[in-house]
Design a protein that fits this description.
The two termini are about 40 Å apart. It is built from 2 helices and 29 strands. It is mainly beta. The chain has 2 domains: about 325 residues, Lipocalin (Beta Barrel); about 90 residues, Macroglobulin (MG2) domain (Immunoglobulin-like, Sandwich).
C-alpha cells in the first residue's frame, strides 16, 4: 500500500530569495523577491520542459519552449529551443540546439556551451572542482571563429566546512584585471552575516551587506551600505525585511534610504493553500500619483508532490483597471521524477514517520524519526546520488531526533529517506538556501 505525502513546505522560499550570479556569493546586490531558476544539472536530469506563454490582449498564447534532454549516460545534455511564431500555428516547430552541457560522473557541470541562433557556439563556461561540490574556478570564454578567447573568470575560496568564503572575479581585456574581490563572515551556525566587496585585494570595501537570521537559519533582514569616498564613511543605501510562516516566506519588504529614514518602496505578501502546494504573492509598488503603495502584480505558483514548479502565473493591475489581467505564464513538465518519494507503510507497525525542521535552512536540520525497527536515514541530491548517511541501526521506540548538517553541500532541494530493516520507506525533502 502506498500513500503519497505532500513534500512542498519550504521550497517556495528558495524561489523567492533570488540566487546570486554565477558566483553564488549569498549576497546579491539586490535581494529580489522571486527567481524561478534551478540548476541546469537538475533540469537535464529531470527532463524539464519549460513553456512561456504571453498575454496577447485576449488570451495567454504560446511564445517559447525549452526542453532539457540528457544523454544516455547522463554525462551530457542539450537545451532544445523553439519559438511558436516560427511554426505554422498547429504545433511547436522543430527545435534547435540552444545550449549544451557536459557533466562529470558525479553530475557536476564541467562545460556549458551557448549556441548562436544560426548554429555554432558563441560562448562557453568551463568549471573545475576540488573536494567541495562547489567549483574552485569558473571561466567564461567567447568563440573567436577559430578558437576560444578569454572573457572573465572566478576563483573560489571555501571554509573547512565547504561553505563559500569568498571569490576573486577578473575580466579580460588586453590582459586579466581584477574586477571584484568578495569576502564574507559566517556565524557559528553557518549564516552569512557580512559580505564585503572590493575592487582589488586590500582596497577599502565599496559595499558592505549585513544580514540577520532567525533561530531556524532564515534570513530576516539585509542592510546594504556603500562607501562614500567624499565623507570617508559608509552610507546606508537599501534594506530588506522578511517574515515567515509554516510554509515559507509570508512578507518581503524593500526599503530605500531617504535622508534619515527608510522609505518603503516595495512589499510582497504571500498566502498559501493546499498544504503549501500553492502560493499567491501580491506585489505592492509606489502609486503613480500620490504617496504609499498599491497592489500592482499578483504571482501564483503551483508545485508538484516533489516540490517542483508546475505553473507560475503573473498578473497585473494597471491604473484604471477593474480586475487582474494576465501578463505571463510559465508551464513546467518533467520527464523524470527526482526519485521515489512515496511512503510504503512499515509492515511491522503504522508508527513510521519522518519530519524535517526548520525547512528551509542554511543547511542545519533536525530530523525526527519514528520507527520500531532498525532504520537507515540517507540524503540524496536532485540527481539521485547519495550524498550522506546520517543514521544507521536500531532506534528507540517512539521519536528519535537526529541532527543533520548539509552546510558543505550546494544550495538546493535534497531528499532524506528512511528505510527500515522490515522494508518500510519514507522520504521528506529538505531545502538548503544560502
Amino acid at each position: 500500500m502506498l500513500l503519497r505525502h505532500s513534500l512542498l513546505a519550504g521550497f517556495f522560499l528558495s524561489l523567492l530569495i533570488a540566487a546570486p550570479s554565477s558566483a553564488q556569493s549569498g549576497c546579491p546586490a539586490t535581494f529580489r523577491f522571486d527567481a524561478l531558476e534551478s540548476s541546469s544539472a537538475d533540469n537535464v536530469a529531470q527532463g524539464l520542459v519549460f513553456v512561456q506563454q504571453d498575454w496577447d490582449g485576449t488570451a495567454l498564447v504560446n511564445d517559447t519552449r525549452r526542453e532539457y534532454v540528457a544523454s544516455e549516460g547522463g554525462t551530457a545534455g542539450t537545451l532544445l529551443f523553439s519559438r511558436w511564431s516560427d511554426g505554422d500555428g498547429s504545433g511547436w516547430p522543430t527545435p534547435v540546439d540552444a545550449e549544451t552541457f557536459a557533466f562529470d560522473d558525479q553530475g557536476r557541470m564541467l562545460e556549458h556551451v551557448y549556441m548562436a541562433s544560426g548554429g555554432g557556439p558563441y560562448q562557453r563556461d568551463t568549471l573545475g572542482y576540488g573536494a567541495s561540490p562547489y567549483p574552485t574556478y569558473e571561466a567564461r570564454e567567447d568563440w573567436t571563429g577559430s578558437g576560444w578567447g578569454p572573457n572573465r573568470r572566478y576563483a573560489y575560496d571555501y571554509t573547512e566546512a565547504g561553505t563559500l568564503a569568498g571569490y576573486l572575479f577578473e575580466r579580460y581585456a588586453s590582459g586579466w584585471a581584477t574586477d571584484i574581490v568578495f569576502e564574507s563572515d559566517l556565524d557559528a551556525a553557518g549564516n552569512r552575516i557580512l559580505c564585503r566587496f572590493r575592487t582589488e585585494p586590500g582596497a577599502t570595501p565599496y559595499r558592505l551587506t549585513a544580514s540577520t537570521f532567525d533561530g531556524d537559519g532564515r534570513r530576516t533582514s539585509v542592510v546594504t551600505r556603500n562607501y562614500d569616498e567624499t565623507a570617508g564613511a559608509y552610507v546606508e543605501a537599501d534594506s530588506t525585511a522578511m517574515a515567515y510562516g509554516p510554509y515559507g516566506i509570508v512578507l518581503h519588504e524593500a526599503f530605500d534610504r531617504d535622508g534619515s529614514t527608510w522609505k518603503l518602496v516595495e512589499r510582497h505578501t504571500v498566502t498559501y493553500s493546499n498544504e503549501g502546494s500553492r502560493a499567491v504573492a501580491i506585489q505592492e509598488l509606489p502609486r503613480s500619483v500620490g504617496s504609499g503603495l498599491v497592489a500592482r502584480v499578483r504571482k501564483t505558483l503551483d508545485l508538484d508532490p516533489f516540490s517542483r514548479p508546475t505553473s507560475y502565473l503573473q498578473e497585473v493591475y494597471p491604473d484604471g483597471a477593474s480586475d487582474w489581467r494576465p501578463s505571463v505564464r510559465y508551464l513546467y513538465t518533467y520527464a523524470a521524477d527526482p526519485r521515489q518519494t512515496d511512503v510504503a507503510l512499515d509492515p511491522t507497525t503504522d508508527a513510521f514517520a519522518l519530519s524535517v525542521a526548520p525547512n528551509p535552512s542554511v543547511g542545519v536540520f533536525s530530523v525526527t524519526l519514528t520507527a520500531s525497527s532498525p532504520t537507515t536515514v540517507e540524503v540524496f541530491d536532485a540527481l539521485g546520488r547519495r550524498v550522506a548517511e546520517v543514521r544507521s541501526g536500531s532506534v528507540a521506540s517512539g521519536e528519535t531526533r537526529i541532527p543533520v548538517d548539509l552546510r558543505s553541500l550546494p544550495a538546493g532541494v535534497y531528499v532524506l529517506r528512511a528505510t527500515t530493516e522490515a522494508g518500510g520507506v519514507v522520504s521528506r525533502t529538505a531545502t538548503v538556501v544560502r
